[in-house]
Design a protein that fits this description.
The structure is a homodimer of 231-residue chains.
Chain A lengths: L4 E4 L4 H12 L4 E5 L2 H15 L5 E5 H6 L3 E4 L3 H11 L8 E4 L23 H8 L5 E4 L6 H4 L8 E6 L2 H11 L6 E4 L6 H18 L4 E5 L6 E3 L3
Parallel strand pairs in A: 1-2, 1-4, 2-3, 4-5, 5-6, 7-8
Antiparallel strand pairs in A: 6-7, 8-10
Helix pairs in contact in A: 1-2, 4-5
């Protein structure tokens, strides 16, 4: 059985889309939610789409943290800090936490095509300040369209992975390439999440303007820079 | 004869690369530089690469501004504000000024993979504050690799064009698609330059890490959102 990934905020569009894709890839997925019943319902609905054998379960967020040492955080920015403070005792030492939070101005009633300034520089760096010592934070999966993830087509998007822990970067890149179409790129240090998070707001603006489901591809790097799915 | 484009700071790698590509496309190009002799030398060198008939000349920056109403600004961020103040009397009313400036931290001795905060939100918005009334500012061409522009291969990069003047956006998009391989995308308002400028710093970081000449492609928008060269 593969190392389980717990998706905190896994009933939202981004979290459930990632859960669907990872369940299809044979990963063991735990959907986390404030409400265990909602989490179980989402797990059921994903199993129905994937297969009755799909390894997907639902738990309350803290229980999900306690059940895995690979965590994927997909919550709106306005809930991020408070939730992390609540979950701190439940997060296991040595865990890898992948953060896809984008500090959209929509969090305070503004536009989803604009961002807020975060004191630490990025939502991911805020997360790094709030997790227990010894937990490695990775920023990734911000730019992957939730609509596309929740569909059946290949995902035409690169996932830029930023972390100060090379081993955690590797884990997140391996998870990224389980999604058909995705290429994972090592984006360097966690501080680079500042820019990767902003790209989501740009894509939101392009989606509104052009009525699409925008993603991003990085061109011009040597082949070795792109990790992709072994077929 | 086509409307001339004056490239302010046209002897640098980005400016000369754009000049080369536009000269090849049959555009009339004026290289601007602080030093008229350097501008003329760069114009000569581009004519030698393109053809003796290529419409490329060199002028001091202020004279270049006075000779065109389509201006392309490619100067390092540390010189941008001061130069615009100097050039203000020379910039013609009704001009379109395309700004490719990126506020890299390298401007103050920091890293080119990091950016500075600009009071107005972006380098392009700073420019908008400094040009004469009635001049339309467009942000574009930040993410196109200077190395690739100065070569002979197609440019594997989208150009996101941001402006508050739809007519100026159109002009910049037309200029962008003269570069083989480039697709132009309307990126909305000038304020979105905040994000487009940041992407350059991300690409610089990726180039250092992976030894490449990174560019960016936007995926997932409807065909109509992408303007490309008529062949």
């Amino acid at each position: 059985m593969s190392r389980p990934v717990a998706i905190i905020g896994g009933t939202g569009p981004q979290g459930s889309g990632l859960a669907l894709r990872w369940a299809r890839a044979g990963e063991t997925v735990i959907i986390g939610s404030r409400d265990a019943t909602r989490a179980e319902k989402m797990a059921d609905s994903i199993r129905q789409r994937v297969s009755p054998q799909a390894q997907v379960s639902g738990l309350e967020n803290a229980a999900a943290c306690a059940a895995a040492d690979l965590l994927m955080l997909t919550v709106p920015f306005e809930g991020q800090a408070e939730l992390l403070k609540q979950l701190k005792p439940a997060i296991r030492a040595g865990s890898v936490l992948i953060d896809a939070t984008v500090p959209l101005a929509a969090s305070v009633g503004g536009r989803a095509s604009r961002t807020l300034g975060v004191w630490q520089g990025s939502a991911a760096q805020q997360t790094a300040e709030l997790v227990p010592k010894g937990v490695s934070v990775v920023a990734a999966f911000h730019n992957v369209s939730a609509d596309v993830l929740n569909g059946d087509d290949d995902v035409d998007c690169d996932v830029l992975v930023c972390s100060d822990d090379p081993q955690a970067t590797k884990v997140a890149m391996e998870l990224a390439v389980k999604i058909p179409g995705v290429r994972a790129i090592d984006g360097g240090k966690l501080e680079n999440a500042r820019i990767v998070e902003q790209i989501t707001a740009l894509l939101v603006g392009l989606n509104i303007r052009h009525k699409g489901h925008g993603g991003v591809r990085i061109t011009g790097l040597p082949e070795a820079a792109y990790q992709s799915r072994k077929r």
